[in-house]
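User: I'm preparing a small set of examples for a lab meeting where we compare how different chains pack in three dimensions. I only have the primary sequence for this one, and I'd like the structure in token form so I can line it up with the others. Please keep the answer compact; I'll paste it straight into my notes.
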Amino acid sequence: MPTIAKSAEIVPGQMTSIDLQGTRVAVANIGGTFYAFTDTCPHAGCSLAEGQLDGMTVTCRCHGSQFDIATGHVVTGPARDRVRTYRVQVENGELRI
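Assistant: Understood. Below is the structure token output for the 97-residue chain.
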């Protein structure tokens, strides 16, 4: 599993976007638990990491689609397709996907 970031770099309640072998992945810290999901909204291609994080829901800044960051499922459209999620492991302060 490749190291993607240091856990201390992503403060609770915040997200960042990283490059994972040519794919943009958003990583969110919710109370010390890390979630990773495709950073590209399937509706309009906007960055989800630049959207709004509210609990376990991320809202796309372009058209307001909302996704559950744990499952990738659409909470509210206009997006119809879910985003891919990734399992995140924390080892010695490093995040790995």
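A couple of notes for your slides: Residues 3-96 form a domain with the Rieske Iron-sulfur Protein fold (CATH 2.102.10.10). DSSP finds no helices and eleven strands in the chain.

User: Perfect, thanks.
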